[in-house]
Fold each of these.
Amino acid sequence: MIYGISLVLGILGVVLLYPAARKLLFMRDVRRNSGSTPGTVSSTKSATGWLWAAAFGNQDRPLVHYVTPRGTEMVLEINSSNFLPQRNYEPGQMIEVLYDKESPGRAFAAREWPAALRDFLLGTGVLLFAIFLWVAGRIYNLPF
């Protein structure tokens, strides 16, 4: 029993950890050579369904318009990939956008960093707990 729980928690930990780690690595790479500019949220809904199923596929994927110092207008789509409560973005809201100076299309909202870090730490904690349960089962010779 403990091994099954450990396996399920291990899979959950990897499912949380992998996307968060990818997002944090991307954000770290952008922050190395980043500029900051204000952005305006223009839309918060994105219909991802098809025909009558469109109502089931609506998601909050805010579109943020920002302008680089060179005058290039860019659009950033914020796609959160977690099951925890979403950050609220309202149309017309001003947010800080961090972008790569060499490639301004590589950008993220500054408010997304703490959420990605939280997901990374949560995934790491769940994975470590799963490993702890597995090792405890082996130490006490619990049956599979």
Note: Residues 2 and 137 are 7 Å apart (CA to CA).
Amino acid sequence: MDGERGLTLLEVVIALLLFAMMAMFLLSGQARAADAILRARIEREMAELLRLRLDLAALEYEEYREGTTEGEFPSDVSSRIVDEAEALGDRFEGYRWEVTITETIGAGAASTVEIEGGESHELLFTEEGSAAEDDEDATSVQAEEVDRMIYILVTVYPPRYDELTEEERADAGMQARSAWTAVHLPPDESEGP
């Protein structure tokens, strides 16, 4: 074994350090990928739940009291359309919702409503019953064109939302999501034709 040289302790230590650094780099990349997948799943589920609750609130607004109603998924609010316990099971456990219903005016009339975060917005309800941000044309609306409308704001909260601080929510990508719609009410029978 003359002239053969083995690895020195320094070479072994450097090789181990390089291996450890590469392993740490690869594992942190996998952790970021897993975190991104979790965030994407939560966002997709929140979008599904937001659409479900908004559709149910718009179709069955009489099941919700005027003001704010809260609940969790699956909901205990009765529905003629879907049995949430059967359809959702416990897949969405931890998600919760809030529905705010306000009676307002519509069909070409301007109305002030609060939208997410307490901001007041002037909305212009057109003949079709949809709402748009108010513009100068809203002032020319005739009073006799006013119909009753229900303004519905739905907010969905992700699991553990209340347990986290605002900074932790932002870091984890766990923000509440909101959507709103307006529903044209049938004429009040007491008003006559």
Note: The chain has one domain: 9-191.
Amino acid sequence: MWNITYDLNRLIPPRKSGYEFIKTIKLYIPYKEIGLKILVRKEQPLPFFYETILKLVDCKCNEIISISELTGVEEEILNDVVGEMSKLDLVYVKSNIITLTPKGRTALNDLKKTVIEREEINRIYINSITGKIEDLEHMYKKPTYKNSCLDEVIRITDEFITSHFNDFNEYYQKRQENYEVKGQSHNIKNEIYQIIGKEYEKLCYLEEKAFVYKNIRDNDLLYECENDPDNVYGSTLAKQIYDCVGARNFLDTPYHCGKYFNTKVVIDKEKEENTQKLIQVVENNSASGSNNTTKDIEEYYFSDRYLLEKEYGYILTSIKDIRPTEIVISSGNLSEVLDDNVIATLQASLDNAKIYIICDVNENRISKLKSKMLNHKQKKRNRIQWIERENINQTNIILYPRCAINIKYIPITVDKDYLIQEIAEITFDTEKVLQQKNSLLNIEN
């Protein structure tokens, strides 16, 4: 039929015994980016001239004039250097007699000196759920539209900073190791001496993937997050979903999903078997290092079956390989079906396919989506037909004559709102594809 260009294995969610997989959601984890004003204790190599003076003093050559005669350094310059050493508490000077301090004797033994300097350390990211200091490469200023975010559990107060002094110091030293100049690691050792306070702070978010499951026995929902072995994020979401607005962002109100309340889905055993066989073959091939082009995969891939999660999006972006002559997309949920990648793919296919988009006039932000979809070269706009209807309660995608996809939406109660589960299926039967296309376009067979 066509080459399978996307990774099926990535679309298979983790399975959990005793639970039905519902959907994957984006979950945004709050972080505080802060900068700190600090005093740093720096341990540096002892300058050669300091070392010479300390050794001479230790050998009882402890007068300025005597050291000047031995080293050939003018007394005026020597006085300045000894003055610097006195400020560092390496020597004590009285009546032109130099005496080693305890710190000076330690420096002589180690051939190192210690200084205290003021610094700023910026872009420190603290996880506002766990309190851990982490390195982040990609962060978001705010969660994207209709996606869940957790509220901060831990506030980064002065008390928090004080109680986590050792953690900040460890992070500071780790950062030095990552950015240190080659050859200096054995010569310089810095550590935080004192945290003066915060320089700045701002909220940001890390995007993670969370899986939603339904308990087969009692229908309770379970949330589990990637990169979260102790399920801290999933447990926090389960608590916050009842009283935190951000955590509820992925839910729909009764007003917005009322048209789905009467949707009924009867699982087709044959299609379900084909789906499970496809999953098994894909997982076996993944374990053995094979790819998607094997005959076993194609056998079950191109059979009538239920789609893997959001697989319809990958099929739509494969239109170049599928090569349909007509494309019909009817949905009351077009904003999720037509993302930027799908729109770009559809616009690129206008030379080879006529496109019909059927929208629900009551869908939120539909006019903005229409402008984006029709924003193409004038000479090709006549190959996109935009049709407006009302109360569309499912999604149909026809890639004629190759395949037809149907997506039904099942509301699952979560407190006063609803989580929408998608049940998507595909057929490759040419007669069914033609029949569904004609039905959507009101064409009599």
Note: The mean pLDDT is 90.
Amino acid sequence: MSGLRESLEAALAKRAAEEQLSLTLNEWEEDDKARSTATVVQAGVTQSVFNFLKANPHISKKAAITALDRKGFNPGSTRSIMSHMVREGMVRSTDGKLLVIADSYTPLKQTKRVVVAPRKEVRIVTKTTQLGLASLKQSESVQTQDAKPVSLLDTLSVRQAYALYVELKTMFGGN
């Protein structure tokens, strides 16, 4: 009988340990649920603006900025955030009235500022080649021109002189 009694006690002890483990796991799950519902994401300016617009549908942009200014938010920031929300499609603006379209707040995407480089002036130069006597006439005029660099530079504009400088630099391999 003692063997049967020991087996029964062992089975009861095992069952009590399993029940205790089950209770502990249930308590942990309840704590996790309580924490997840109690944990509130700290509301930044953007989320506060979103929540305000959701709580006040069809409010004008000006009235929303004024109301948020009274709550301590910078009017410039709120105006910018509202415009960004409209661009992102979270909020719709109709006749100056704002209506939240999104179900819940999602952080706004960062927009990259595009810096447009100034356009360089492009000149298309076409060379005409003449055949026959016309080509001889050109070569004669080049030979009879004054070959002094200063007199050549006197006939050029500043842009033409710079273009000549760049071309000579590339021809002679300057720094």
Note: The two ends are 107 Å apart (CA to CA).
